Amino acid sequence: MLTVVPEGVRYAVDIPDTVIAAEPFEMSVRRVDIVTGQLVTTDDRSFTIRAFSGNSPRPDFTLSPAGILADTVGTTVDGERLFAAQTYDRAETIFLRISDGTGEEFFSHVVTVLPAPASILEVWAEDLPGQVLDRPLRPDEQVIVRTRATDASGNPVQGSTISVDVVRGDGSLGNTRSRSSTLS
User: Fold this and answer.
1) What pLDDT does 25 receive?
2) I want to staple 106 with a disulfide (CB 3.0 to 4.6 A). Which of 73, 98, 168, 169 is the partner?
């Protein structure tokens, strides 16, 4: 058996600029001739895809990404590896590094991973900042109500509108002393 490794080729990656955390996105990896720009269909070397965090022109290899790149196997069509359901679960900016055993590697552009819509809402009361209220409220006592909205992967979701209502008792919320309030 004779293995021929083409010379003068590089990786090319098509990936969206922005994706949603934990939601599938499409991407492709192919090898192209550096002179003609044509797809090289005779190069079937395997490669790995790895994510790195960062906003710099090239990734900082000391910054491991917070998330997991769910690497699907992909299908090869005419020399191009298509990934129809790639996912990344953390909201952050990442680079992808494509590399093979020969030392050939390629870096994608920056990919912004946005949080998915809010799916988990936490609400708690504190009698002092940082101390969760673990007892019933007394008459005329004031507490701080804190909220946190995250997506299914635990990414914070900014700008979520939350309605808080007093459903039992005769308490009130905020300076207006109303029975309901909308927070954002």
Assistant:
1) 93
2) 98
State residue 60's pLDDT score: 60
Asked whether residue 17 carries a pLDDT value surpassing 60, the answer given is yes
142 in Cβ contact with 113 (< 8 Å): no
* Percent of the chain predicted with pLDDT > 70: 90
C-alpha 43 chain-centroid distance = 31
Backbone dihedral angles phi then psi of residue 25, each to the nearest 5 degrees = -135, 160
Buried b (16+ CB within 10 A) or exposed e, 142-180: eeeeeeebbbebebebeebeeeeeeeeeeeeeeeeeeee
